[in-house]
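User: quick one, fold this
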Amino acid sequence: MKIKNLYLKNFRNYAEETFSFDAGLNVLYGRNAQGKTNCAEAVFYLCTGTSPRARKDKQLIRAGESAAFIRADAESRFGTVRIEADIYENKREIRVNGMKISRNADLLGNINGVFFSPSELRLVQDGPDERRRFLNVSISQLSKSYYTALIRYNKILEQRNALLKNRDLSVVFETLPVWDAQLCRYAAEIAEKRQEFIRELSPLAAERHAYLTDGAEKLEIYSEKKYPATKEEIEKKLNEEFAENYERDVRLGFTASGPHRDDLKILIGGEEARVYGSQGQARTAALAVKLAEVEIFKEHAGEYPVLILDDVMSELDLPRRRKLLEKLDGVQTVLTCTHTEKVLFGKTVNKIRIAGGKIKR
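Assistant:
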């Protein structure tokens, strides 16, 4: 998977600019707040249809403008693909090879992307929401059925939670089994796919972490909730679990169990990283997880994804920077930093200097 060029118009602080990317390492450098991260954000947006930074699409539009436009041309083992996105205040239109898509699921998988920035420390340090978000974004790119199940699960969950707030308990207890039959079907798809993903992720992340730390620390990742092996068994178990907890859920006014409440355990040296890990340990663990994610994409898609590394070099010492770059061989990488180092990057790198939302040649 290789992005050949990226065109931005009225996106963030860019009035209009075109980036040409090489198949290997592409370094966007310049002073802070010049637009390097904005370019990296645009790449990931075209991969997933979501921004790793903005909660609402309208935040992506350049100040004073009514719309933004971004486009990328890419090559994969299946041929060439063009992704375009028109972003307006209250809506957007995304096209794949000129065809407008109505569902985000139809965007996923055209250009696979893995994104890492200092804010990804949330994956290790924050609550379960961040780890579920990581799983959802990654698995959705690999499996459209997972993404579809996730969307439907969340819609049914919202309706179930609304029902739990109804004070007519006879209606609640009579209707809950109807919602649960649908909810558990999609929950089983989500839980099964997550289990498969975590099974692949755990040893790969442990290996990458050992490499980055010279084996000084051991990283362990596993799912806090244990599910049965098959989708049918998961569905049955969840149905029983929901039924056993009707009174609890009614008392709370929301659904207190299910995939939307699951969590990943991340341990460093046998201790929970979220509680006991230092900033540096969390950073290395999160980076190891992202490098493992790259390998999973390669295994499933048959080619490496585009790897986006935003401001990662400033957070690593020189030996770990070198180790990281060694792992990028064969992976198209968009890397942002404040300055380039000849001793680190060498000469075979596509260097792009950014200043004030413009490429300085």
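User: anything notable?
Assistant: The mean pLDDT is 94.
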